[in-house]
Amino acid sequence: SYVLTQPPSVSVAPGQTAKMTCGGDSLGIKSVQWYQQKPGQAPVLVVYDDSDRPSGIPERFSGSNSRDTATLTISRVEAGDEADYYCQVWDGSRDHGVFGGGTKLTVL
Amino acid sequence: EEQLLESGGGLVQPGGSLRLSCGASGFIFKNFALSWVRQAPGKGLEWVSYITGSGGDTTYADSVKGRFIMSRDNSKSTLYLQMNTVRVEDTAVYYCAKKDNWGNWFGLWGQGTLVTVSS
């Protein structure tokens, strides 16, 4: 089955840029999504189809995807961005969803 | 406003059964595929199952295949997850999520319902 790998944690100071990666075999040919989850809340889609943002998501959130790695970038990080972030793809060969293990973003 | 609302969670003994429901509103229910996604305490998200808009096709994670059954009643705008022969490792918050018609992402999630499997 398809596997997505995320670093467990990333730390960044307020106002700086946070980059979180998601690795997978030939990930660049897949559509990658990113979800933000704050404690006690349901996940929220922040980036879809590699680099598109749903309405209401700040422009500070951006995504890219190439070869074996997708990246979620949060510019001008705020305290309110502290959360767990999950990448996700769809395994079309099995019609299965696949999530990465998640990255905890800490704002110092 | 689009909304999903799960119910039916609770405490169940190992080997027992439980049925979760997910009521939808604010969109044409039959037009969208849906999934169940779960999250064990302190752990990450795990995709569980998928159903097409018509309900004619379903797929399951290997961890639940043969034990869980996903279904839907489009006349009631309600999604179900029948959980049979549950195990301690099925303990989790279960979310229903709406899959977008234009791509493979989940743009709408419910608030989740907690299932605890314990003797």
Characterise the protein shown here.
The complex is a heterodimer of chains A (108) and B (119). Chain A has 108 residues and is mostly beta strands. Chain A has no helices and nine strands. Helices cover 0% and strands 45% of the residues of chain A. In chain A, the strands form two sheets. In chain A, strands 1, 3, 4, 7, 8 and 9 form a six-stranded mixed sheet that branches. Chain A has a three-stranded antiparallel sheet with strand order 2-6-5, with no helix packed on it. Chain A is globular. The termini of chain A are far apart. Chain B has 119 residues and is mostly beta strands. Chain B is built from no helices and eleven strands. Chain B is globular. The interface between A and B is medium-sized, with 27 and 22 residues.
What does this entry show, briefly?
The complex is a heterodimer of chains A (108) and B (119). Chain A is an all-beta fold and 108 residues long. Chain A has strands at 9-12, 18-23, 33-37, 44-47, 61-66, 69-74, 83-91, 96-99, 103-107.
Keywords:
heterodimer; A: 108 residues; mainly beta; 3-stranded antiparallel beta sheet; B: 119 residues; 4-stranded antiparallel beta sheet; 0% helix; 51% strand
Summarize the SSE layout with pairings.
The complex is a heterodimer of chains A (108) and B (119).
Chain A: E1 9-12, E2 18-23, E3 33-37, E4 44-47, E5 61-66, E6 69-74, E7 83-91, E8 96-99, E9 103-107
Parallel strand pairs in A: 1-9
Antiparallel strand pairs in A: 2-6, 3-4, 3-7, 5-6, 7-8, 7-9
Chain B: E1 3-7, E2 10-12, E3 18-25, E4 34-39, E5 45-51, E6 58-60, E7 68-73, E8 78-83, E9 92-99, E10 106-109, E11 113-117
Parallel strand pairs in B: 2-11
Antiparallel strand pairs in B: 1-3, 3-8, 4-5, 4-9, 5-6, 7-8, 9-10, 9-11
